[in-house]
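Data availability (excerpt). The following record was deposited with the supplementary files.
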Amino acid sequence: MIPHRANNFGTYFVTTSTWNRRKVFHVDELAKLLIDTLYRYRKEGKFLLHEFVIMPDHFHAIVSPIDITLERTMQLIKGGFSFAVRQTGRKTLELWQRGYSDHRIRDNSDFNQHKIYIHQNPVRKQLCISADEYSWSTATKKFELDEIPQRLGPLKCVNYSGTAEAVPLRKNQ
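Predicted structure:
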């Protein structure tokens, strides 16, 4: 089989939290270290990165794994970050809660709803007034991102007549 770069595993909105919701990412150095981790694996071709926000005690992202599972993608991000923290000489207890939450992005509308959720999360939590002010979010437009996967495609207008296309003819009985 010839290796390929196609994304066979979909596009996902993911969320993971720090251990006991500790505010690990209040420390700018650690928020930057998580961003560095995301971009290291993106550059290695492990996943496409579409959006993210790093909150004080969790992060959200929209990712498309490339030739690996979503589970492996999250292992790389969380494990890579934990390893990087240890390399700084910091004593580390548990950094992450076990597991993560995910939602498979179905279409362009679903993608946009989750993008808005990501961008507005710091505003809802009163960490900023405007989403583009929050340093650790793609709402700032200072981060390089991958395009929306083509298979999600643009929204299409469809006219519905209210009748199914495959309704069988019935004779009045």
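Summary of structural features: The longest strand covers residues 47-54.
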